[in-house]
Specification:
Layout: E1 3-4, E2 22-25, E3 32-38, E4 45-49, H1 63-68, E5 72-76, E6 86-87, H2 95-109, E7 114-118, H3 121-132, E8 137-142, H4 156-167, H5 173-179, H6 187-194, H7 204-212, H8 222-232, E9 239-244, H9 253-260, E10 270-272, H10 278-281, H11 283-297
Parallel strand pairs: 4-5, 4-7, 7-8, 8-9, 9-10
Antiparallel strand pairs: 1-6, 2-3, 3-5
Helix pairs in contact: 3-8, 4-7, 5-6
Length: about 300
């Protein structure tokens, strides 16, 4: 497997990103995953999983709020993103490879009593991860995410996004995130989102993600996702949705999960102001929803 590692110089003096880097190996040939680890080390972990095509920078305004409430916040960069290593061949990326990398991450850090916070592809990976490690998770918070099986049609906006990721000769990371947010990213924020991707070889993982989403019933990941749904349909632990009011891709997914997942009943689900990247548009309300959920749980 050919892997590239973004030069550290690309990450110097990023706006609002003062966090100490941590690394662990999660795959063959020393594939390295970067993660943030903030807050009290002895506290139960809050695992924040980003999606496409962002990285842990997405959670920069939320991490201090949750950590200040006494929680340990862990925010990894998925393989192919952020400060994590980036395989350069499209064939090296699959839904299952991402699951394997994150499973190794959980095992290496020996994480238990986890509260999952996930959005976009962070939900596709995180919800599977929670279902396959049910005893290690104590709560789930989903914002603008879903666990698709391919048994329901994908929205037109998503099909357009897949075609763009697959065929467009240009793939402007910061502009994509800016388009998916209500707010306008400043020049330093755009620099930070572009930082992990100095060239096309570094963007293969970002381009790989959209076509990996199960949109047909015979997708290679569909059976495993259906099995995960069987667990989620029995899930009694707290399950909170914090979707935004302006995401054309995941709109309605919150109601779908509230109806199917027992742990969602009676929870104070919220609709936050924002686009697809609600961490940019409503970071503090999103973080407070997490803190309030954990406070109610004691």
């Amino acid at each position: 497997m050919d892997v590239v590692r973004t030069p550290e110089s690309r990450f110097k003096r990023l706006a609002d990103y003062p966090f100490t880097p941590h690394y662990t190996e999660v795959g063959d040939a020393g594939v390295r995953m970067h993660y943030l680890d903030e807050g009290p080390e002895a506290a139960d972990p809050v695992l924040m999983l980003h999606g496409e095509p962002s990285w842990s920078y997405l959670y920069r305004h939320m991490i201090p709020v949750v950590a200040a409430a006494g929680h340990r916040v862990i925010a990894p960069d998925l393989i192919g993103f952020g400060k994590s290593d980036k395989p350069t061949a499209l064939k090296d990326y699959s839904y299952q490879s991402h699951m394997d990398w994150m499973q190794t991450f959980l095992d290496r850090l020996q994480l238990n009593n986890i509260t999952l916070v996930c959005q976009d592809w962070g939900s596709l990976i995180g919800l599977r991860l929670a279902a396959e490690n049910e005893s290690r998770f104590k709560a789930i918070v989903v914002g603008n995410g879903m666990l698709p099986t391919g048994d329901q049609p994908a929205p037109p906006a998503f099909r357009m996004w897949c075609n763009f990721a697959r065929y467009s000769p240009w793939f402007p990371i910061a502009r994509i995130i800016n388009t998916g947010s209500f707010k306008k990213l400043g020049p330093e924020e755009r620099r930070a989102y572009n930082a992990p991707f100095p060239g096309s070889r570094y963007k293969v993982g970002a381009r790989a993600f959209p076509p990996l989403v199960p949109v047909t019933p015979d997708n290679p990941a569909s059976a495993a996702n259906r099995a995960a749904w069987q667990v989620l349909e029995r899930w009694q632990k707290p399950f909170l949705t914090t979707f935004s009011n302006g995401d054309p891709i995941t709109r309605g997914g919150d109601k779908y999960m509230q109806e199917r997942i027992p742990g969602a009943r009676g929870q104070p689900h919220q609709t936050l102001v924002g686009g697809h990247f609600l961490q940019e548009d409503s970071p503090v309300p999103f973080a407070r929803a997490i803190n309030d959920l954990l406070a109610r749980m004691g």
